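ok so I'm stuck.
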Amino acid sequence: MRDKILFVKISSFSHINSKVYQKLRSNFPEHEIITVDAIEILRSKKIYILLNYFFIVKEYFFRLITFRIRIKDCVIPNTFFFRLVRKKILQNYKHIHNSIAFTFQTQSLVDASIPGIKNYIFTDNTYLENLNNEFYDRNKTPTSRWLAFEKSLYTNAAKIFVMSSNVRNSLVIQYQIDQNKIKVVYTGGNINSKSHDSELKDYTSKSILFIGGNWSRKGGHLLLQAFRKIKEIHKDATLTIVSWRAPKISEPGVTVYGKVGLDDIGNLFKTTSIFCMPSYIEPFGIVFIEAMMNKLPIIATKINAIPDFVIDNENGFLVQPGNVEQLEIALLKLLDSPELCKKFGEKGFKLYKEKYNWDNVFQKIKKIIKEDPVDKVITLEKV
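replied:
not stuck anymore, here's the structure
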């Protein structure tokens, strides 16, 4: 009896993996969920770590010695890690092969496929999709051999569940994957969702929230510049920054936090009136979904997946990356009009309820998996 699901992940994936595990358990209660962490496979033996470093140097030597890339950027996108994880999955679970209903993996950085068993992928990005963003550092693009491994992963998959339309387009155009294999199912937030009443939310508080670990990539410095300008007009405006890479900032109206827990982040969403994160690069941006959950109007950039869920002039404003002037104008429009903040917040919350919540996401995933023919033959493509 095939009563097991092999769930393959890489660490926490911005807390998404814990949500996926919970939803796999609740949507497939008749199955035992076996979790495999690819990073733990790498860490299981010192020789694996040493070999991983060897292959990193071998594959990225020139970029490393010219300081165009760092070793930590290559720990996962190298051929040794990809092959190691695939090999250990095949070896470690050979004895229960006939008991596995399907494999399910988050992200497209390893290959969890097993011959004769369907593999489903749930991912937020592809490596080649990064190239569509002018601010992406091309030196971080993996080698052509690794990209061939990545394409084989998509080819071998039974279905690819993606969070946004730009990733679907990347798979079809840049990887030549059959569009019928790809399903846009969206994603949910990581903070606990509760009922929200916009009548109780104070949109007059003029409180702006920024949450982004990577201060520079997330555009924190740009928001700070814009805030200093709008502070001249709205002297009672405040800016709350959550970032463990933010510089030391000591100026009126600005509060900075380092790493905080999900509960604390949830409280910050409840007590602020505008969410702003003007990223240069953002594969998806779960934090925007969490802002929508809390009925906050959003200011974001026109990059990657963001235009899917931040609809310009409907639930927020979209600005060009690096454009401080556009950022100032967008902030002033919201600070000048609590009514507009409320309108945008309500629209964003509606979008969250309709598409961007875990119940809806896994209803789609469960339906597709249940309707996928069990007798479909899977032929794995070799690289």
